[in-house]
Amino acid sequence: MNFQVTVLKVLVSYPDGFAAMADLKRDMAILATSGPDWAERTKRLAVRVADLDIFSQGLIERMNGGWRVTDKGRAVLEIMEARPAPAQQARELPEVLAAEEPAPAATLPPMPSIAPVRRMRERRRRQRDAARRSQASAP
């Protein structure tokens, strides 16, 4: 699994692109244990951007006990996820993103969103809390 690509994908899924470290770690653990598909996708995306470094390139910023994706980080992720046009050259990308073009046969399916996982987790938490409240109020 490519750590930096996963960080970008997770942060983009949060409102305002900000996630506390605990939330970020939890979501990344879910993706890391979801099977080989996620690891393969992040590797293919990472190939599109040579020398990806989310901190030194200003793609994310550390703030208030968490990380936030920047506008530049969102743009890089869009470039990574875009299907390459046949005539597109690496020199057309911003200089931070001197990318290698993947083989033409390697088209990527859309990346899954982690928002449904987060909604399901929140639903389960609310159900557990409701069950605890009902047990506490029972004689």
Task: Summarize this entry quickly.
This protein is mainly α and 139 residues long.
Keywords:
single chain; 139 residues; mainly alpha; three-stranded antiparallel β-sheet; 5 helices; 3 strands; 49% helix
Any overview of this molecule?
- The protein has 139 residues and is mainly alpha-helical.
- The chain has one domain (3-137).
- Helices cover 49% and strands 8% of the residues.
- The chain has helices at residues 3-12, 21-32, 36-47, 71-81, 115-137, and strands spanning 18-20, 60-63, 66-69.
- It has a three-stranded antiparallel β-sheet with strand order 1-3-2.
- Strand 2 and strand 3 (66-69) form a beta hairpin.
- The longest helix is centred in the last third of the chain and has 23 residues, at 115-137.
- The protein is elongated.
- Mean pLDDT is 79; it is low at 89-93 and 98-102.
Cα radius of gyration in angstroms: 18 Å
Please write the string of helix (H) and strand (E) elements.
HEHHEEHH
Count of discrete domains: 1
How much helix, percentage-wise, in residues? 40-55%
Strand content: 5-15%
Q: Output the number of helix runs.
A: 5
What is the count of β-strands?
3
